[in-house]
Design brief:
Elements: E1 2-5, H1 7-16, E2 21-24, H2 28-34, E3 41-42, E4 46-47, E5 52-53, H3 57-64, E6 71-75, H4 81-91, E7 96-100
Parallel strand pairs: 1-7, 2-3, 2-6, 6-7
Antiparallel strand pairs: 4-5
Length: 130
């Protein structure tokens, strides 16, 4: 089963469980230039150009997270791609999957800008840029 947690609860889980792993499933450009939580492992679910699926996603995560029973938190821009990524990991036996709802940038506001309503950065949680 895939659990949904908001960014604050996700951060608390990461702080309280040293075995937990965060996987940032956004594109390399998003991860580097928009920013990412420190310690987040980057494995793109889809990639530019054209947002092509990363056919190696599951294998890449399996190579980085050896224990399929540890909590794996998945982060994308707004909490949509991360659900699809979590489902793929669930199919290969990962048992503690957490989708970070709101994502890193959050939902669009009335002016079609992200980061003003919700999301990891909106809540003031730690993040860095490359």
């Amino acid at each position: 089963m895939i659990e949904n947690l908001d960014p604050n609860k996700s951060w608390a889980l990461l702080q309280g469980n040293s075995a937990a792993v965060m996987v940032d499933v956004r594109t390399a450009i998003e991860h580097s230039f928009v920013g990412h939580p420190p310690e987040a492992i980057h494995v793109a679910w889809k990639e530019f150009p054209g947002m092509a699926a990363n056919d190696s996603f599951v294998a890449q995560v399996e190579s980085l997270v050896k224990d399929k029973s540890v909590p794996v938190l998945l982060l994308c821009r707004s909490g949509v791609r991360s659900v699809a990524a979590a489902k793929a990991l669930e199919e290969v036996g990962f048992t503690q999957l957490i989708n970070i709802v709101e994502g890193f940038e959050g939902a669009l506001d009335a002016d079609k800008h992200r980061g003003n309503i919700d999301g990891w950065r909106f809540h003031g949680l730690p993040w860095v840029q490359s």
